[in-house]
Specification:
Distance between the termini: 103 Å
Strand content: 15-25%
CATH topology of the largest domain: Beta-Lactamase
Order of helices and strands: HEEHHHHEEEH
Largest sheet: 5 strands, antiparallel
CATH architecture of the largest domain: 2-Layer Sandwich
CATH superfamily of the largest domain: PAS domain
Radius of gyration: 23 Å
Number of strands: 5
CATH class of the largest domain: Alpha Beta
Number of domains: 2
Oligomer: single chain
Structural class: alpha+beta
Length: 175
């Protein structure tokens, strides 16, 4: 009899553990969907595997529309040779790669959605490429995170413009 209650207790523990894992998975997926950062996971063929809510909101494309589609067919303005070269070390060396808005204003030409606080015509972006190592130890996918840097870029451009104006004013006053 004690054995049966022990088995029932173990079964209950297993069910509770499984429920906790499901709940944890659910809140993690919710976080990925709602975070204010674009998250795109793609494989070595640049086929999209994950497309979060940020990307959906700014591109107008649903995750179901982009899943298993080529990033290059959906966004033909992204140069395949350039992006393949940029991500090669991520796949082969398991190292991260970066793009800053100063190097390249954007990867995805999304409209600026903050027209009151910024007069930029498009969203300036920083992009991080991180390797996603599989259980076999291989990097089969890359996680790309897209950060909206429009406010910072606009502020820096305004500051530079102000400095140029100030320097020009100083030059004129010297003459």
């Amino acid at each position: 009899m004690a054995n049966n209650s022990s088995n029932a207790s173990n079964d209950a523990d297993i069910k509770n553990d499984a429920l906790e894992e499901i709940l944890e998975f659910h809140w993690m997926m919710d976080m990925i969907q709602t975070v204010d950062v674009g998250i795109v996971v793609f494989n070595r063929k640049f086929e999209i595997k994950v497309w979060n809510g940020f990307m959906e909101a700014h591109s107008g494309l649903l995750p179901s529309d982009v899943r298993d589609q080529s990033l290059f067919s959906l966004f033909p303005n992204i140069d395949p040779a350039w992006l393949q070269a940029k991500t090669r070390p991520v796949f082969e060396l398991r190292t991260r790669a970066f793009i800053t808005w100063e190097q390249r204003p954007y990867l995805f030409k999304f409209r600026n959605y903050r027209p009151i606080t910024s007069n930029a015509p498009y969203m300036y972006q920083n992009v991080v490429f991180s390797p996603s190592v599989s259980a076999s130890g291989k990097v089969d996918n890359v996680c790309m995170m897209i950060y909206d840097m429009t406010d910072a870029a606009s502020a820096k451009k305004q500051l530079l413009s102000l400095q140029v104006t100030q320097n020009e004013s100083k030059e004129r006053s010297r003459k």
